[in-house]
Task: inverse folding
DNA sequence: GTGGTCTAGACCACA
DNA sequence: GTGGTCTAGACCACG
């Protein structure tokens, strides 16, 4: 199963679903054009309410990962573009990481090594 | 003022206070051993509820940034160590960034350039 | 092809078909009296359900754009009149645009310039 | 009451709420910084479910009309900017109006007069 | 008290 | 069958 949930955690379920799908794309488990289960089907599969899945799909659509076709349900977008909104999202995370690192005296080289390993880990999984 | 708040945003205020203090440390505005205002004082200064500041201080203490002494109040920890918990927090952020980047087809070199600029930006501010 | 569809969008397909035909008339690609494909033929051509095309044609007929003859099939109406119903439809759209513009502080001159460019754009295409 | 609903129509209730608020801003009934009722309060007032109002508020927030403060509820944004997204929304409506007008043979001068009257009507109400 | 989240179940539009 | 909308009622995080 592509989607893993932690019902006890603080992260909203719809966010976890969203993140799982994005991670699956990054890992190559889902590719451009691939179909996703219907909202109701996925809800049954992972044991949550339909509306929760619906909200996750809406998020993915807003972020450009998903395109929803009235006829055939949801699919991964054909063209996953690297627009400004995505870049901003990425930089926000990097900035938070850099602040934590720099405040603890981590060297730049160690930081960059960590960055590289995070990226390389995805390449291997793909 | 070290602490900047966005009351209208989605990020909880206590989280923003926590992040502001960590950012101030990274920028050199706060150093190891520096005193922080009392919970009550800071609450008045930035116009938020006392419980909110209290929660932020508790978070900072749990993350090892703050040491709270009943007599002398709150101070930045004398030794800001780079322990495993910190590394895990940093890596989690990097991982999230890498996933968003890789899923959109960003190249590794562009990703690392972005990482470097995030880190360098802090060096300049310090 | 006169009709362009965006299956992933929020606009219903029958509405898109209807709008495409009206746009084609505005652009001069379709003129008064011109024949249209049969419901079945068009459905096959653009790859949608026959009922969907049927609904679009019904809309066009209701709005006075189409006249449907049992023998000769569908044709663009011989006389495209500018009656009150059409004026109301136009004004409704203009009103929505004006509200969005005025609420954001757009000046009247900028608004009218925008109106003019929207109209002129059609003249050039025609 | 600022908000008027048509429960029988095709327009979703949350959309009608959204449009009513925007119209109220355009008419000067609501100004920058004005508070709005809480989600639950407004829901009771107009007799719809809380979630419906919630969705309307989320729309208004996404469109930049509303800013939601954790402490005091919702307020009209302090700065109603005229960004590209708003311009696109306005032009889309103008374009639809122009197409309907041009396809029926309306002259440019009559079209522009209609545009002007739509805008002026708002000025008078304000 | 505020909004945020989740559940359960229903009806409708679309295709 | 799909998603879109709405209702009803509950619990939690935040302040």
Result:
């Amino acid at each position: 199963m592509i989607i893993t949930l932690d019902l006890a955690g603080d992260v909203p379920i719809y966010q976890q679903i969203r993140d799982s799908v994005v991670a699956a794309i990054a890992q190559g488990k889902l590719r451009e054009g691939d179909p996703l289960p219907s909202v109701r089907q996925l809800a049954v599969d992972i044991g949550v309410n339909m509306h929760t899945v619906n909200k996750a799909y809406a998020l993915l659509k807003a972020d450009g990962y998903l395109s929803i076709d009235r006829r055939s349900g949801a699919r991964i977008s054909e063209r996953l573009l690297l627009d400004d909104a995505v870049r901003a999202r990425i930089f926000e995370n990097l900035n938070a990481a850099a602040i934590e690192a720099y405040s603890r005296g981590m060297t730049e080289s160690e930081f960059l090594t960590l960055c590289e390993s995070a990226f390389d880990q995805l390449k291997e999984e793909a």
